[in-house]
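Before a colleague's protein record goes any further, I have to sign it off. Alongside the sequence sits a line of tokens, each denoting a local backbone shape. I want your independent view on whether this chain really folds as the tokens say. Where you disagree with what is written, explain briefly why. This is what I was given:
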Amino acid sequence: MKILENLKSITVKSNLKISSAIKKITQHECGVLLVINKKKIYGYLQEGDIKKALLKKNFKLNSSIEKIINKKPFTIKSNLSLEQKIQKLKNSARLRAPLINEHDHIVGLLYFPNFEKLFEGQILTFNKSLNKKRILLVGGGGYIGSLLVRLLLKSNYYVIVYDLFKFGLKSLNDVRKNKNLKIIKGDASEIKKLLSISFGIDAIIDLSGIVGDPASEINPTKTIVENYFNSKNLAEVAKMFKIERYVYISSCSVYGFAKGQKKINEKSKTNPLSLYAECKLNSEKAIFELADKNFNPTILRLATVFGYSPRQRFDLVINIFTYLAAKGHKIKVFGGDQYRPNVHVYDVANAIKLCLESPIKKVRNQIFNVGDNKLNLKIIDLAKIVSKLNKKSKVVIDSSLVDKRDYHVDFSKIKKVLKFETKYNISQGSKELYQKIKNNKFKNLKKINFSNFNVEIKNLYD
């Protein structure tokens, strides 16, 4: 329980736009704004009042708060003891109340502080610039997210990472104390918590769910919940709060088997061959069905990702080959003639950032394949490029087991519309990761956390 006596930080004018009130109210943990006239309360606006307004179809962000403020709020006399004040608040089943003196002048605010479970004593509110964008990364502790966090912080964004941290928190260790970062541990299925966190956010990026075909097949029910229902519900939250920017991370695996087609673009027929791809495609459809003038989702279909990240993965084709080369082992290729589109994890993070910063008319309700036409290569060719890192590593072809996924994707749209350019090719990205391995960046390369599949197996029996 706290008492706020200096009310300057939460005092506003009655003509303040509701969109600005949303920003302002998230700057203080008390969750309320006051309109004061001659030291008396003219209007009282709680976070809940704005949320109720958001549920109305005729709600407009540019309307003034005059329309939704409470002009007769519950108050508590300031001359009562602290125990009596708290009891009054509890008896009324409230989280906060203005304190008034014998002249009905407001002299303070009694409130319960934000109770979200954050790391290292953080509070959820950011106390400075209203102009700085606030980005919510759901799944921000993973392979792509941990790199994206750093990119956004360098670009002067406020960042909230919401993650279950099934791979641990180590990936964010060196940025955890950054004043522009908040870290919240939670599951993407916790709608109540997401409704609290998403209020006042400028953009949501959905990186949540189980990633990869093998990991998604372990527990199909769990995969459907995490990769479809959770993503659909998160989009519902964004729509309710009229969060204009929403980026959903999908996969080029939705194209499935398309042998002979060398230019699969965003309008090409989809053919998902796995539960993972099926869930991604169904999520895309569900999210687009929610689109309106205030909710403008963007879908990014990623090529197969590779390269170094603070939360490393060694269960991706190029990363596996690089690991084998660094250890001087044979690089075994199953089949080899299948085409795979590839993209470095840094370039993925940069593509997401580009979606946040491009004019909304260019990204609203759009699907973009994320990758580079030059990085559409056969698996055998990927292996040969990586094998050059170590002369001891020889490429061996095994035709007994062949992955049926075979697609050659066109990435012209994102290059043309958003001016997206990749920084890393296969050689550069694998060489960087190879050097990290050789320099003992990873103490135990067989650690479970380096594989999404192994982590899901572990969680299955824990």
Remarks:
- The chain has two domains: 2-111, 119-461.
- The longest helix spans residues 220-240.
- The mean pLDDT is 90.
